[in-house]
Amino acid sequence: MGSQGKILHVWNRLSSNSASDQGIAGRRAPVKIDAVEIDNRRAELRIHEASKVWLFPYAKLRLKPEPDNPIIEAFPDPELGNECFTYFLASGETDSIHLDNVKALNRDPESMVDLFLFDLTVEALESIEESGMGIRQLARMMDTSPAQIYRLLETTNYSKSIGQMIRLLYLLGKDVRLEVKPLP
């Protein structure tokens, strides 16, 4: 398989989340929700994950509970790998929310860095396809091995640095600018 075929293989694995992927170095274990608590008095859900508790206000739910239509049940959903929680309203309506959405709402710094790395990786994959450059050529330009380039292009590898990704994008003819501004 040529280098372009391998790049496409890495690109096609963006949505892959098979169990066999979980033991590879540089990948984090999937997030798991341990429990979900309903707090109608404070109008929020408390999502327990490992040693952290995340708050999710009712106002941010897609299906908003009302006094005559409260949340009657909320739980980590095993059908969704316990990476999401599902809640039921008294009317029978149901919805599921992924833990990544909860972390984004709570502005979890680690999740924001992971999302930024993911965006840089997707941009690098698209830029490689546009440029027609091969992996070996990029490896020579970065003074590294082709295996390291493949690690940089793996979207689920969060052990790479933002600096490495910026260097790669620069070699691919992209100017990366980091904007710092107050949070809304």
What does this protein look like?
The structure is a single chain. 35% of the residues lie in helices and 18% in strands. The chain has 184 residues and is of the alpha+beta class. It has 6 helices and 6 strands. It has helices spanning 3-12, 99-105, 109-131, 135-142, 146-152, 162-171, and strands spanning 35-39, 44-49, 52-57, 71-76, 84-89, 94-98. The longest helix is centred in the middle third of the chain and has 23 residues, at 109-131. It folds into 2 domains: 3-27 and 108-171, no CATH class; 35-105, no CATH class. The radius of gyration is 20 Å and the shape is elongated. Residues 1-27 have low confidence and may be disordered. Helix 4 (135-142) packs across helix 5. The strands form 2 sheets. A 3-stranded antiparallel β-sheet has the order 1-2-3, with helices on one face. It has a 3-stranded antiparallel β-sheet with strand order 4-5-6.
Number of strands: 6
Tell me the number of structural domains: 2
Helical run tally: 6
How much strand content do the residues show? 15-25%
Helix content: 25-40%
